[in-house]
Amino acid sequence: MDERAAGPRASVEAVFREERGRLLAALVHRFGDLDLAEDVASEAIEAALTHWPVDGVPARPGAWLLTTARRRAVDRLRRDQAYAARLAILAAEADRSGPAAPVDDDGGLPDERLRLFFTCAHPALPAADRGALILRYLAGLTTSQVARAFLVPTPTVAQRLVRAKKKISDARIPFRVPEPHELPARLPGVLQAVYSIFTEGYAASAGPQLQRLDLAEEAIRLARLLRRLLPDEREVAGLLGLLLLVHARRDARVGPAGELVLLRDQDRDRWDRAMIDEGRDLVLAALGGPPGPYGVQAAIAALHDEAADEESTDWAQVVALYDVLLALTPSPVVALNRAAAVAMRDGPAAGLALLDELAGEPRLRAHHPYPAARADLLHRLHRLDEAATAYRRALDLAGTEPERAHLRRRLAEVEAAGD
């Protein structure tokens, strides 16, 4: 590609990253078919790559893409009468359920994309399929990124996507706004999806950069909308608080050259104190009753943010909160994080013993933080050969270059100490 084409292509890609969710949501609401929406959205992007280098980037690029995609969809439907008839049925069903409307004083959903998040969280779909559908088509993650979010193989996610779309089609699940009484039942799936978007933004699954701030900020925006929509839901407050408390460290997590900076080495003066204060207030709201998983995670994040340094962190309280979280949501990832906290409270040998108990967990085998955590504790215990082996394993699994560079430095340190 020559330099003249590179600028417009970058502009198209930037616009698409920002507008993709809104574009798909609008198209699905209009035509009632996810596959059609994705196809014509892709065609609109290709059209932009053809026209924008010649005509310039339009003043409202999102509107340009939506208009182009709608025209492509209408052209396709005119050519395929059977397809059009089937979609007409779906559209009629959606219309009977009520049109999508902007936010109003009656508590309507304030964002078309968020409406579609709730739609794809329909209880007729299995939980894993709902999550994959939301992250792939509404959050814009790739299939491999969705697989990373769920700690499963990429082909498994691909199968889930096919199954979910088939279920929507066969069961004629309408793309509509849920009734107010339906929202709480669908909320856990939406919270998980927003959290997974943030996780990909906080630590990208692959690429040259550690963070994808656009995704992290989009997740925070969606969490704020949920907070406006459901102000009495404590787990919504917990999720927003968690995201703010973690995102407050974003500037300190990378060095001048984009390198990874661990929590213990971060310049805490660079943390966003206003964001931390807001997050702490939300923790209080989230824990105003029986604890939920997001509220507990937010409380853990608050303990880290309140500490002057790693040594003064209240590790006993962190471990106690992980005990609560493990009871609420038993998972190997929570157990991994708890083991790391135990290592800080009781020493590396205690943490390593807990990590070794997790060695048979299949979900951790492709999760590079597990061997990286083992390597760190083995290093601290001066078991250098074992530490080097664990660092090599983590290096094989790490997806981003900053993570890989960090692991290479640690491996070199261990190898030099062993010589």
UniProtKB/TrEMBL annotation:
<dbReference type="InterPro" id="IPR046531">
    <property type="entry name" value="DUF6596"/>
</dbReference>
<dbReference type="InterPro" id="IPR036388">
    <property type="entry name" value="WH-like_DNA-bd_sf"/>
</dbReference>
<feature type="domain" description="RNA polymerase sigma-70 region 2">
    <location>
        <begin position="16"/>
        <end position="81"/>
    </location>
</feature>
<comment type="similarity">
    <text>Belongs to the sigma-70 factor family. ECF subfamily.</text>
</comment>
<feature type="domain" description="DUF6596">
    <location>
        <begin position="186"/>
        <end position="286"/>
    </location>
</feature>
<dbReference type="Pfam" id="PF20239">
    <property type="entry name" value="DUF6596"/>
</dbReference>
<dbReference type="GO" id="GO:0006352">
    <property type="term" value="P:DNA-templated transcription initiation"/>
</dbReference>
<dbReference type="GO" id="GO:0016987">
    <property type="term" value="F:sigma factor activity"/>
</dbReference>
<dbReference type="InterPro" id="IPR013325">
    <property type="entry name" value="RNA_pol_sigma_r2"/>
</dbReference>
<dbReference type="GO" id="GO:0003677">
    <property type="term" value="F:DNA binding"/>
</dbReference>
<keyword id="KW-0805">Transcription regulation</keyword>
<dbReference type="InterPro" id="IPR014284">
    <property type="entry name" value="RNA_pol_sigma-70_dom"/>
</dbReference>
<feature type="domain" description="RNA polymerase sigma factor 70 region 4 type 2">
    <location>
        <begin position="120"/>
        <end position="168"/>
    </location>
</feature>
<protein>
    <submittedName>
        <fullName>RNA polymerase sigma-70 factor, ECF subfamily</fullName>
    </submittedName>
</protein>
<dbReference type="InterPro" id="IPR013324">
    <property type="entry name" value="RNA_pol_sigma_r3/r4-like"/>
</dbReference>
<keyword id="KW-0804">Transcription</keyword>
<keyword id="KW-0731">Sigma factor</keyword>
<dbReference type="Pfam" id="PF04542">
    <property type="entry name" value="Sigma70_r2"/>
</dbReference>
<dbReference type="InterPro" id="IPR013249">
    <property type="entry name" value="RNA_pol_sigma70_r4_t2"/>
</dbReference>
<dbReference type="Pfam" id="PF08281">
    <property type="entry name" value="Sigma70_r4_2"/>
</dbReference>
<dbReference type="InterPro" id="IPR007627">
    <property type="entry name" value="RNA_pol_sigma70_r2"/>
</dbReference>
